[in-house]
């Protein structure tokens, strides 16, 4: 199957405007004849559901949390980028476009990224009008800060809770539509399958997690906004229930999975402390604006940080990348931390940590200024570690954080299944092989507020309203498959909990498909994952029944999907025999240890088609053309 | 450390609940409270018993999904801390800990420690928004907002909607939650356009959900993990009074 990106022709600055004009419209009176299902109520899902409802489409929104307000977008701390150039420091749509493509190491689609940069300015307007309390300056105008990988100050923020505030903004718009009866919301429901009718996605099968009841919902299109798959690593910065199941079920029904190996490892998280740990906590990257990252120059230096004199400290990011220093992009910062720890210079009990030190910033600006900027983050750090970061440097280490890869979508955000649209982190389209800081919130809201409302109309106008009944045989068959799968899980009757398998999988993924990957390691992972999966189906223990709230069962079906999906990640990582962005293959590096891309052979999107569990998926390539930006080696020196 | 837990178990909304006793063995002081419960649950599953159900997700104190009344206090006795951010170093070896769900008529128990807080969502749907559609917003810097107002609005907006305020209140009042949302919008020019309509609609829905009224005990502020101030309640009362003395402009549903 040929992958058609459906990128409009014409100059890049005009593509989106031209496309908006070319797309078919549905007249206001007819819009209510069309319905859409939105799965997930994070930034992408809530904004999509609200804005489609505002247009007059009938929308059903589903989330597994107890309220749409709790989706994991809420955890984003640092900020959201927009090319407003309010700071008069040389920003522009073109610069944001350039930075994002370059930051993604030239593995994203130019036209999509340009559109993202273009609509970024509208997002901020929309959020302010919703009452999002962004940080302001004394004159009453919006404040900005610079953020990892950017030399301009284009990041808007609301203390250390930007994701929360943007999500509550989208949730308030969604709530308004719920109140008006334009959106029906289904919290505590989990999507367990997508249903195709005549090749088009026309509904989903869900499980009500309170009653265990399995039912179907039909609509004219399905919009998936179910977030990323970073919990394949078990420990990550994701919420505990975040999973790949919805996207993975779509993949099994024919949606291609693009660049699954592109997973971001965030450089500033609180280090791992023990086997019992359930998640890793991110410390906002904004801390890198004032904190300096260092390790002792000497191996095994166990002195307390404050007793190590200046000349025995190695500020390795400042040393290696003088122009970006502590603000170097995430992939580079993470890998550098791993390198110094592998050399034996890491700090903390495990030796897997580096210092993030505010001593100089406190000296320069005073404790009050630092407290005003980062107070809540410092408190959070102290709560978790019992150490006071005003007095001793924070200890940080990289952790799995974000999936740049996701279901393949064309320029209209439609997957290879017609009628199935994928938004936000769940798609692959905008961040290439590495996402820049403060760009995830931007992409989620761009997709939901400003792109899907147009492109879904074009799809509807093309296929017409079908008014499909969820009682059709296709739905009943899918419901039965879901029920059988659950029955099978409940009847394994083994000895190990699903979490035990998840932890084992996570360890393999972190070690062999994490910050540094090799042919040998990935081959080993591809042997071990099927073994764990086989053992899971023989020895997992899932307690309780199907017709009740059953968190053991919920964990089990998520873990079962991760045990299949992880293999696709490793296949992709092995197949991409180059280093780019977050994907670092040790075989491909420069003499200085920097990532070495291979544009002649790998300047494409790898989109994988499902061929059966345990079978090698089939690779489809979407070649990437760079008409505006010259393929260049990233340099942050 | 080793602990004894007395945990509220209840099969479903209709069943009668009871406190059951469990032993939590070899708990590290670095664990969070929920990680301690994870350990207990893994043991239960291995024995073929149903794990203790509780709501949780982000485990970094921001999603508002975790709850629990720990030794009689919502989110436990540490100040400004959600249950997921409460660490075991605050407990003593050999201690007995009682764990119950948030209790309020408007928050019925679903199972064990899981409660239904959808009443909060219905209050939000009644008026917790500005009635603007995507597309028409003016430039974000078109209306300057004094920094002090923006900061106060942010203090209000920091609410995570966990419901601890309701669980701590002897009247099961939701006025801190509603007051925070009303205040956020009343402090910003974008929200002032609909201030009367909003406060009337949200308070009416709050009453309909059978939350009680505030009698100024400030238990809500004391347990709030985000330290939302009871000033929010005072501001909501002012807004409500203001709306009451202003003639109602339109009977149309808020948001329409």
Task: Describe the secondary structure blueprint for this structure.
The complex is a heterodimer of chains A (about 625) and B (about 260).
Chain A: H1 15-22, H2 28-31, E1 35-39, H3 43-55, E2 58-62, E3 80-81, H4 93-103, H5 110-130, E4 155-156, H6 162-179, E5 183-186, E6 189-197, E7 200-208, E8 214-218, E9 221-224, H7 245-252, E10 257-258, E11 263-269, E12 292-296, E13 313-314, H8 316-320, H9 330-342, E14 354-357, H10 359-365, H11 367-385, E15 394-403, E16 406-407, E17 420-422, H12 440-463, H13 473-490, H14 498-512, H15 519-539, H16 551-575, H17 599-602, E18 604-609, E19 618-623
Parallel strand pairs in A: 1-2, 1-9, 2-5, 9-17
Antiparallel strand pairs in A: 3-4, 6-7, 7-8, 10-16, 10-18, 11-15, 12-13, 12-14, 14-15, 18-19
Helix pairs in contact in A: 3-6, 3-12, 4-5, 5-12, 10-11, 14-15, 14-16, 15-16
Chain B: E1 3-9, E2 18-24, H1 33-46, E3 69-70, E4 73-74, E5 96-100, E6 109-111, E7 114-115, H2 118-127, H3 147-157, H4 164-168, H5 175-186, H6 189-192, H7 195-208, H8 219-223, H9 231-245
Parallel strand pairs in B: 1-5
Antiparallel strand pairs in B: 1-2, 3-4, 3-5, 6-7
Helix pairs in contact in B: 2-7, 3-5, 5-7, 5-9, 7-9
What does this structure look like?
The complex is a heterodimer of chains A (637) and B (256). With 637 residues, chain A is α+β, with helices and mostly antiparallel strands. Chain A folds into 3 domains: 297 residues, FAD/NAD(P)-binding domain (3-Layer(bba) Sandwich); 133 residues, Flavocytochrome C3, Chain A, domain 1, CATH 3.90.700.10; 118 residues, Fumarate reductase/succinate dehydrogenase flavoprotein-like, C-terminal domain (Methane Monooxygenase Hydroxylase, Chain G, domain 1, Up-down Bundle). Chain A is 37% helix and 14% strand. Chain A is built from 17 helices and 19 strands. In chain A, the strands form 5 sheets. Chain A has a 5-stranded parallel sheet. In chain A, helix 3 packs parallel to helix 6. The model of chain A has no long low-confidence stretch (mean pLDDT 96). Chain B is elongated and about 60 Å long. With 256 residues, chain B is an alpha+beta fold. In chain B, helix 2 packs antiparallel against helix 7, helix 5 packs across helix 9 and helix 7 packs across helix 9. Chain B is built from 9 helices and 7 strands; from the N terminus they run E-E-H-E-E-E-E-E-H-H-H-H-H-H-H-H. In chain B, a hairpin with a 2-residue loop joins strand 6 and strand 7. The N and C termini of chain B lie far apart (57 Å). Chain B folds into 2 domains: 109 residues, Beta-grasp domain (Ubiquitin-like (UB roll)); 129 residues, Alpha-helical ferredoxin (Fumarate Reductase Iron-sulfur Protein, Chain B, domain 2), CATH 1.10.1060.10. The interface between A and B is large, with 84 and 81 residues.
